[in-house]
């Protein structure tokens, strides 16, 4: 049996197809440029972001000077959720939803109306820290502030903002 021998045209097509394939894959998978910004800590409350209360020692607080201007530009639509339920009920609903989302709860502070969890990304299994703080609204009901921070990398490619939007939408829908 003779070894496979390709023609010169086959080799040329192969050498052309490889870079074209890579370029097409990069164009297809490349996120929007603004999502490449060095932002990996996103919150709904830029003035008073929820603090992690069961934090690893190396977990810093929210760096407002660094992250707030970027977040306003990229995720300016994020804000606290106003919900009709009393704060204790809202916290209980948030806890059920977090567990149902597959998050690992690492702390629930019922007296402080807050919870902390670890969310894991689907594709690469990155672990991100999430904290939710509930407070009474002046007009009744409650206000929910949320923060999601990636443990690795300078940019989260929009993962934290998508997580916050999806969670708050599901919470508001009563899921």
Q: What's this, in brief?
A:
The chain has 175 residues and is an alpha+beta fold. 35% of the residues lie in helices and 22% in strands. It has a single domain, classed as 2-Layer Sandwich (Alpha-D-Glucose-1,6-Bisphosphate, Chain A, domain 4), CATH 3.30.530.
Write the layout of secondary structure elements.
Blueprint: H1 8-29, E1 41-43, H2 64-74, E2 81-83, H3 87-100, E3 104-109, E4 114-120, E5 127-136, E6 142-150, H4 159-172
Descriptive report:
The protein is of the alpha+beta class. The protein has a single domain (36-172), classed as Alpha-D-Glucose-1,6-Bisphosphate, Chain A, domain 4. 35% of the residues lie in helices and 22% in strands. It is built from four helices and six strands; from the N terminus they run H-E-H-E-H-E-E-E-E-H. It has helices at residues 8-29, 64-74, 87-100, 159-172; strands spanning 41-43, 81-83, 104-109, 114-120, 127-136, 142-150. Strands 1, 2, 3, 4, 5 and 6 form a six-stranded antiparallel beta sheet that branches. Strand 5 and strand 6 (142-150) form a beta hairpin. The longest helix has 22 residues, at 8-29. The termini are far apart.
């Amino acid at each position: 049996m003779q070894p496979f021998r390709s023609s010169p045209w086959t080799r040329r097509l192969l050498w052309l197809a490889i870079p074209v394939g890579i370029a097409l894959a990069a164009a297809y998978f490349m996120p929007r440029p603004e999502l490449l910004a060095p932002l990996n800590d996103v919150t709904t409350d830029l003035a008073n972001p929820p603090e992690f209360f069961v934090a690893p020692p190396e977990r810093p607080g929210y760096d407002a000077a660094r992250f707030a201007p970027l977040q306003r530009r990229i995720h300016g639509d994020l804000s606290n959720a106003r919900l009709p339920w009393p704060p204790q009920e809202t916290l209980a609903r948030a806890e059920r939803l977090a567990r149902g989302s597959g998050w690992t709860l690492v702390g629930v502070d019922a007296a402080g109306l807050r919870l902390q969890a670890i969310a894991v990304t689907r594709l690469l299994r990155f672990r991100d820290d999430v904290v939710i703080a509930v407070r009474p609204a002046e007009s009744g009901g409650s206000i929910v502030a949320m923060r999601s921070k990636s443990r690795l990398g300078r940019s989260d490619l929009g993962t934290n903002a998508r997580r916050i939007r999806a969670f708050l939408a599901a919470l508001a829908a009563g899921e």
